[in-house]
Amino acid sequence: MDIESDGGFITFEGIEGCGKSTQAKMLYEHLIETGYGVVHTREPGATAIGRVLRETLLSTEFAGMDPRSELLLFAASRAQHVAEVLRPSLGDGKIIICDRYVDSTIAYQAYGRGLPVAEARRISDWASGGLMPDLTLLLDLPVEQALGRLSPDDLDRIELADIDFHRRVREGFRELAEFYPERFRVLDATQPAKAIHMQVIAAVNSFLDAII
Ligand code: Z5A
Questions:
Q1: Is 159 in the pocket of ligand 1 (CB under 6 A)?
Q2: Is residue 46 a contact partner of residue 100, using CB atoms and an 8 Å limit?
Q3: What are the chain's domains?
Q4: What does the pLDDT look like over 183-210, one tens digit per residue?
Q5: Mapping DSSP to helix (H, G, I), strand (E, B) and coil, where does residue 13 land?
Q6: In the prediction, which pLDDT does 6 show?
Q7: Per-residue confidence (pLDDT) for residue 1, from 0 to 100
Q8: Which helix (H) or strand (E) holds 208?
């Protein structure tokens, strides 16, 4: 792939509290300093439509949201994100750093909520027009440790799900990494942020070396 014309698409994934947002920001700053054209984005909430959907999806007011509604709202947010941010940025030859994408739908709505994996994948593929990341960095750590990093008074609707839900989500991510070893790199997220950052840079550098 020629980065001048095709860009590069990197995603961060993992259970909540795994440190994705911290690592995505550190990587963005590193790549900008190195001189790359980079777009830092996230799901849900990177577009005006996505922000409205994010509010609905995470609000504790909607505790009774059906898993299918949940999946479709994440898919709607993704369709807009692909059309408005991801495709145009790749067309401009940018490197995209995205905090969550399709793998979150498979891990949360299929493994977590129990919807069939094949259906979750089909709807996600339709919403994204088949756009998949080139490199996915999975920050993996035990659920208890990750949830312990969150503020207990400020949990959103999905964070409030029981611990077995979060365990299934973690298992889902780990299985996805086994299914797609060419795209995934699994990093030990129990380490200090700086140590993880060094591993992120190593993984991203070997990806960039391969495409430039
Ligand atoms: N979701 C879904 O179900 N389906 C989908 O298709 C998509 C998403 C796209 C998005 O909410 C929610 O939507 C999410 C999945 C679901 N589930 N929930 N809830 P979000 O974007 O608000 O939440 P999040 O993605 O889970 O991010 P987060 O809670 O902000 O956590 P994080 O990004 O993994 O971690 P962080 O913000 O970098 O760090 C969390 C805390 O840990 C913070 O205090 C840090 O200072 C600390 N931290 C960070 N790194 C470390 C290390 N290495 N050691 C110790 N402490 C650390």
A1: yes
A2: no
A3: 8-211 (3.40.50.300)
A4: 999 999 999 999 999 999 999 999 998 8
A5: strand
A6: 75
A7: 45
A8: helix 193-211
Alpha carbon distance 16, 34 (integer Å): 29
Beta bridge pairs of residue 13: 138
Q: Which atom of ligand 1 is nearest to the CA of 57?
A: 13
Between the CA of 146 and the centroid of ligand 1 the distance, in Å, is 9
The answer on pLDDT for 5 being more than 70 is no
User: What is the atom index within ligand 1 of the atom nearest the CA of 146?
Assistant: 42
Q: Encoding tokens for residue 143?
A: 């659920």
Backbone angles phi, psi at 130, to 5 degrees: 80, 5
Given a contact cutoff of 8 angstroms between Cβ atoms, the answer to whether 22 and 193 are in contact is yes
Find the 147 Cα to ligand 1 centroid distance in Å.
9
Task: Please provide the average confidence, as pLDDT, over all residues in the chain.
Answer: 96
pLDDT at 37: 97
**Residues 98-156: tens digit of each pLDDT:** 999 999 999 999 999 999 999 999 999 999 999 999 999 999 999 999 999 999 999 99
CA of 149 from ligand 1 middle (Å) equals 9
Ligand 1: residue whose CA is nearest its atom 23: 16
CA of 83 to the centre of ligand 1 (A): 24
Overall residue count recorded for the chain in this entry: 212
Cβ distance 37 to 94 under 8 Å? yes
